[in-house]
Design a protein that fits this description.
- This is GP-PDE domain-containing protein.
- One of its GO terms (biological process) is lipid metabolic process.
- InterPro entries: GP_PDE_dom (IPR030395), PLC-like_Pdiesterase_TIM-brl (IPR017946).
- This protein is an alpha/beta fold.
- The chain has a domain of 173 residues: Alpha-Beta Barrel (TIM Barrel).
- The protein contains nine helices and nine strands.
- Strands 1, 2, 3, 4, 5, 6, 7, 8 and 9 form a nine-stranded mixed beta sheet that branches.
- α8 crosses α9.
- It starts with 10 loop residues before the first strand and ends with a helix.
Length: 249
């Protein structure tokens, strides 16, 4: 059977930017990932009520901003008034929730040449038209780095493939035998992003999948596991640490 990731080096992908050291899904977190030379960056996109793409993980604002309520209920102008940094550390006071376009611009300015994983957060709210908007933003940004589009929502993955077969599509899951069966039936979705806890117990079920990148790999032992298994990549909140483990191991 084909080994995950072939003989290539396991890519270190900064989960929501450098989430462990900076406020997640913000420009400072992405800049840190760039500065430590992470191989890739992961982010989450949702839609405001006026149809703009914003980079935030939770459907509600409560955890990572100074506001409460749903992302989908605010306009972009209202979202931009929020403080998305103080919750993490006062040093990041008044850090804003970025648009996807702002993150793409930051990566271009920094001449990023790695992998950008854009997760469409449609597992709880199926944002109408989000797939088209993400694809349009990528096209208009004219990026020179690798794009991976991912989601927990299988319908989102189907729509992405129907709209544009250019980009790698990845299925995110906690992991079970039904997920593997679904992937086996949908060969056009050639990447799997499972929970690291599940993967460690069921690595033998994934050796035929081209790109396996587990989340969230923060323990050194789990980092070593991913490297030894020659996985395509790993999502981590601590990209600097993961790079040190991989490159100095």
């Amino acid at each position: 059977m084909k080994q995950n990731g072939s003989d290539k080096m396991t890519k270190v992908i900064a989960h929501r930017g450098s989430k462990g050291t900076h406020p997640e899904n913000t420009l400072p977190a992405f800049q840190e990932a760039i500065d430590v030379k992470a191989d890739g960056i992961e982010l989450d996109v949702q839609l405001t009520c006026d149809g703009k793409l914003v980079v935030i993980h939770d459907e509600k604002l409560n955890r990572t901003t100074n506001a409460k309520g749903w992302v989908k209920d605010l306009t972009l102008a209202e979202i931009k008034q929020l403080d998305a940094g103080s919750w993490f550390d006062e040093r990041f006071k008044d850090t804003k929730i970025p648009t996807l376009e702002e993150v793409l611009a930051l990566l271009k300015i920094n001449q990023f040449r790695g992998l950008l994983n854009i997760e469409l957060k449609t597992d709880r709210i199926e944002y109408l038209g989000i797939e088209q908007k993400v694809l349009r933003a990528i096209e208009e940004a004219d990026v020179s780095f690798t794009i991976v589009l991912s989601s927990f929502n299988r319908d989102t993955l189907r729509r992405l493939k129907a709209l544009d077969k250019t980009y790698e599509i990845a299925f995110i899951a906690f992991g079970n035998k039904y997920d593997i069966a679904w992937l086996d039936k949908h060969r056009d979705v050639n990447s799997f992003h499972p929970d690291i806890r599940w993967l460690k117990r069921h690595i033998d079920q994934t050796t035929h999948i081209e790109n396996v990148r587990p989340w969230t790999v923060n323990k050194e032992a789990d980092m070593v596991f991913c490297i030894e298994q020659k996985l395509a990549g790993m999502f981590t909140d601590f990209p600097k640490k993961a790079l040190e483990v991989r490159d100095n191991g």
